[in-house]
Amino acid sequence: MKPVILAGGTGSRLWPKSRAALPKQFLALTSDKTMIQETVQRLNGLDALPPSIICNEEHRFLVAEQMRQINIDNSDILLEPVGRNTAPAIALAALHAATNGEDPTLLVLAADHLIQDSATFQAQIKQAQVLAEQGKLVTFGIVPTQPHTGYGYIKAGPAMGNGFEVSQFVEKPDMDTATQYVNSGEYFWNSGMFMFKASVFLKALETHAPEMFAVCTKAITQTERDLDFIRISEDIFATCPSDSIDYAVMEKTEDAAMVTLDAGWSDVGSWSSLWETGNKDDNGNVSIGDTLLESTTNSYVNAEDCLVSVIGLDDVVVVQTKDAVMVANKKNSEQIKTVVNNLKKNKRPEFEFHREVFRPWGSYDSIDEGGRFKVKRITVKPGEKLSVQMHHHRAEHWVVVSGTANVTVNDGTTMLTENESIYIPIGAVHALENPGKIPLELIEVQSGAYLGEDDIVRFSDRYGRSDK
């Protein structure tokens, strides 16, 4: 069995926690582990190969670091140069898995689902594997707990071994139709999880979506290995049709099968879904962080780094981060996507980044700024180095708080330790490295007429981000 983890989503309905540069699959929303870490660790104990993970180019170092944190250091990380929906992504994984003449059974999972009962989940995976090895394209149908208009549904057909034939895939229904589906006992939520032999899926894709199959087959022959990553040719892959696996294959094949799953599943698609699956107090509230609730009921309150008090409200969502606060009626939490679209349209930084931004070498937190200055707290991991770079519009002053910094400015190199500082003039070519065994913490004070992150000219970079 070869797990394939799809990690390319944006999670915009979970703003302000989930953002373009740090979407929900890389956040710890339901435990102390991130959702992608939970997804991978949920497979512990199964007889499975290391996972293939498919993600966007800009998230590659997040994936690598979060896998390293849970001691998964031999996974394949495939980089989608452009998004083309789930069918091409799965095709790339299947083709890559078959490059050495092997034909593993692929277990396709989303990186951002919650499954509370891992034992039942693993048991149903084993049931699905039996059907997959018989040449079936298996999907997992979630036993519905209530009528839900946010999910597509699968209608079960005749029994087939440990599962069912698929009678029909149906789109997201209105509430009356969803109620009829649930009451009938014949319909299950479409989970977006699948299991099949790589060869069976590829044959079905070639039959039902030949152009997509041809482009993906060509693209996989042009891959390049880069550090932990497998790069796909953008020129080729950009010509691929965009379609979901449901539309491209599952709704057209005669070999679709379904295994049911009742294991506390949620796609964590909105704040209201986190309320539904969270641990509630006697007033029906789910509260996380430093919160104080008075006369408040049936609400979800999440405080990141300060006290959040909610008084006299019912059925609300309140989420606080270092740079944003979102308050919504729980029934209207789907409209958060409209807010996110407006942030993107107006080019607000809160669309893409948190105040704390993660980089392959560590992170920085913009703790204060004004008209001509910005203050950052920078953390550099042991052994890591920022790019050799320069700025046209700003000077920088660095003060080491803890650890050791190896600083290059033009042709000179200086070693700095705690409470020592250095000045980087405008136009100076400079670099920062942590040669030590502990994290390097420093305060950076920027000053100048323009302090945007795009005022960086990189001359060399160990992470492949050079401009020169």
Question: What would your notes on this structure say?
Answer:
By secondary structure, the chain is an alpha/beta fold. The protein is 22% helix and 34% strand. Helix 3 packs across helix 6 (198-208) and helix 6 (198-208) packs across helix 7. The chain is globular. The protein starts with a strand and ends in an 8-residue tail after the last strand. The mean pLDDT is 95.
Give the termini separation. 43 Å
* Quaternary organisation: single chain
The total of beta strands comes to: 30
Number of helices: 11
The biggest beta sheet is recorded as: 6 strands, antiparallel
Low-confidence stretches: none
Structural class by sheet pairing and helices? alpha/beta
Strand content: 25-35%
Question: How would you state the average pLDDT, rounded?
Answer: 95
Radius of gyration: 24 Å
**Which sequence of strands runs across the widest sheet?**
20-21-22-29-24-27
Approximately how much helix is present in the residues?
10-25%
Shape: globular
Quick synopsis:
The protein has 468 residues and is an alpha/beta fold.
Draw up the topology in text.
Elements: E1 2-6, H1 35-41, E2 52-56, H2 60-69, E3 76-80, H3 86-97, E4 105-110, E5 114-115, H4 118-132, E6 137-142, E7 153-160, E8 163-170, H5 175-184, E9 187-197, H6 198-208, H7 210-220, E10 224-226, E11 229-231, H8 234-237, H9 245-250, E12 256-261, E13 265-266, H10 271-277, E14 286-288, E15 291-294, E16 300-303, E17 308-311, E18 316-320, E19 325-329, H11 336-345, E20 356-359, E21 362-369, E22 373-380, E23 388-390, E24 394-402, E25 405-409, E26 412-416, E27 421-424, E28 430-433, E29 440-448, E30 457-460
